[in-house]
C-alpha cells in the first residue's frame, strides 16, 4: 500500500494513527504505519519529553509525528484567569447541579484536573514545540486551523512536514495558502471536532481543491474496506484516531469507559459542543444530553466551555460515573468490539485492504494480481 | 462493472438511478444502468400509466423499476381530511405569515397543488402498484420502511425484485426479515430522508448485517471515485438520486431552482423536518431556516407536516420565490455544476470508476489490467 506520501515518509503502509498514548503511537509506526502522538493533554514540558524519549526507545527507528492544537491567530495578554472570569455564574451553577444530581464525588485532595486541556493555550503549544523539535519527528499536525507562519517555517527548516485538519474544501485551501504540506480531510463521521460534510463527499472535494497537495482521509475509517474506499476517493493515505482507543496498548485509565466503547454502536455518538464549545463527535451520554437540552443553559463558545467543564469531566472520569462517562470518538466505534493489540488491528486493516482491492478488481473485470 | 446483482438484472453497470422523471429513468437504463421511477408525485393512476407507457417506448428493452412510498403498517379508516383536522391552527398561521412576509402569491385559480404528496397515503400507493404490475418492471423499491407482506409476495410472483431503503443496520435487518431482496443503505449525506450514519460507516455495516443480501450504497455518490469507494465498501452497486436533477432530461419546471442547484456547494444542504416531518436532506433555504428556528412553532410529525406545507411549497415553486425555493438533494450537490445529458453524466461515472480502480491497483502494487 504505497502512495507518493508514504514513499516520501519511508513507511510501508499509508496508514496514519493519531493517539494520545505513546505506546500506541510507537506500535503503529513499528507495524509499518505512521504514529502521531497527540500533545494536547501535556501541560508540563517534562512530561512530553519523557513520553517522546519513550517513543524513541520503542519505535525501532521508524518515523513518527506530533499533533498539537495551536490557533493561527493569538489573543495577546489574555491569561487563563481572564478567560475563567468570562464564564457566567449560571453556567457554573448548572455544572454543580448536574454533578450533584448524579452524586459525582470531588477529586481527591491535591489531585489536579487531569483532563484540563491547557495545551490549547498557545504558549503551552509553543513550549511543546520547543520540546518536540529536539526529537527527529517527521510530521507536525495542527488540529485546529492553520499553524502560525513561523511554526511552518521552523518545521520546514528541520525537514518536518506540516499537516492540518480541514472539514471543508474552503478550510483546506486556507491551509494550503499557509504553506502546509498535507491536508487531513476530517469528515462528519469522525471523532473529535468535525464539520457537517461526510467523508464520501469531503475527501474528493478536498483532493481536487488542494491538488497537488496530498490529502489524508479521516472519519469513518476502521477497516481495510474503508481504507480502500478512501484511497479510491483520491486520498494518499488514511488518518485513524478512534480505532486505537480500545487497543491493549491504549491506557484509558477507565475500564468502565473501555466497556462503553466496546458496547457502543455507530449510532451512539453525537456531534456536541459540550466538550469544547465547538462541535465535536463523542459518545452520547447523559452529560452531552444535558448540554444539548434546549431547556438547559446551552454551551459556551470555545475556549470558555472547555474551561467550564474541565474539573467536572475529570471528576466524572476519575470516579467512572457511568451515565455521564464519555470520550471523543467517531461513528466507527460500532466496529470496536474487542480489545486487541495494535499489530492485530493493523493486520486486519492491511488484509482487509487487499481483499477490498481483490473485490474491486473483480467487479471492474481486471485481470487481478 | 459487474456484480452478482447487475448480472442478475442483466445490466452493464451496477449504477441505479432514482428519479421522478420518466425521460431520466429511460436514459439511465439506455446508458447501461438501471433507471428507477419515483412514483410518489403521481396522484392519478392514468398519469403513472402514461409515463410508464412513455418509458416502455423509450427504454429500448432495457430493465427499469419503480419506487413507491408505502408504510408497512396502515391506519384503517383515516382519511386525508381526518389528518388535516389534526393540524394546530397556530401552525397554519405560521405558514400564512411566512408566505406573506415573502409576498408569495396564491396559485392561479383552479390550479391544484402539484406538490401534494398523496402518494404517501397507502391507498394511493396500492393503486400505483396495480398499474405498475401491468408493466415489465424488474424492481420495486420502497422508500419508507419495509413493504407489506402481500406486496412482497405479489412482486415475487411476478419476478420483480423488492428493495427497501435503510439508514441503519437495525432497519436493514428488519427489511431482510420482511423478505426483501435488496437493501439500499442510505447514508447521512444523501438527499431526502436520511439517518445520521454516514455512508463510509453505514455501507459495510449494512453489508455485514444482511449478508448475503445485496446492498446498494446511497448518499454522497456522484463521481466514479465514489462509485469505486462504495464497491470497495462491499456494496453490489450504487443508488444515485441527486445527480440526475440537473441533467438536460430532467424537468424541474423551474429555471431558478436549477440555478440554485448548480450554484450550491456541499455545505448548502440541511437535514430538516420542514418538508415531511421526518429528517430529510434538502437545500437549505429561508423556508427550512424558518421551520428549524427555535423561536418558531417547529415542525409537526409525519404526515401532518407534509399536508401542512403542501400548498405553500407548490406556491413557492410555481412562483419561484428564490429565498424559499428548495428541493431534496444530497451533499453531492456541490459536484453538480452544469446541465448535462444523462449519457454524459454516465460516461463520467464509468470513466472515473476505471481511473479510480487504476489508482487503487497502483497503490496496492498489483499488476494492473
UniProtKB/TrEMBL annotation, chains A, B:
GO terms for molecular function: monooxygenase activity. Coiled coil: none annotated. Its EC number is 1.13.12.-. The keyword Flavoprotein applies. Keywords: Flavoprotein, FMN, Monooxygenase, Oxidoreductase. Pfam families: NMO (PF03060). The keyword Flavoprotein applies. This is Nitronate monooxygenase family protein. It comes from Streptomyces hintoniae.
